[in-house]
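task queued by scheduler; priority normal; single chain, no ligands, no partner chains; default sampling; output format set to structure tokens
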Amino acid sequence: MDTREKLDALLSEMPDESPKVLDASIETTRKLLYQFRGRIIDFSKNELPYPPGGHPQSIPKSEHDEVCDRIVHLQRKRIHLSDAFERVAQQLSRKPWKPVSARTIERIWQNRKKSKT
């Protein structure tokens, strides 16, 4: 059933249940929910991993190579490394809701060797 129309057609072909059967089905479903509750809580405590901590990255790892390329390009123009960090940060901070600091760019630059290995 990949469309809602197919589901509607299937359900319209099925016979309607009597009110007693519907009430029994609803009651059974409610009881099952209470039985599953404890198992779901145990499962979530023991099996599901915790979300990773920390602030979300402002620049995804897929864009780190591009950031390093921009810095290399500026270095070839004989721009000091700290100024290159500032310029790249300004270029990437064009979006007001997602500012990027020069320190973030510096961290990406410092980790470039680690990510290559």
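post-processing summary
- The two ends are 47 Å apart (CA to CA).
- The chain has two domains: 16-48, 61-116.
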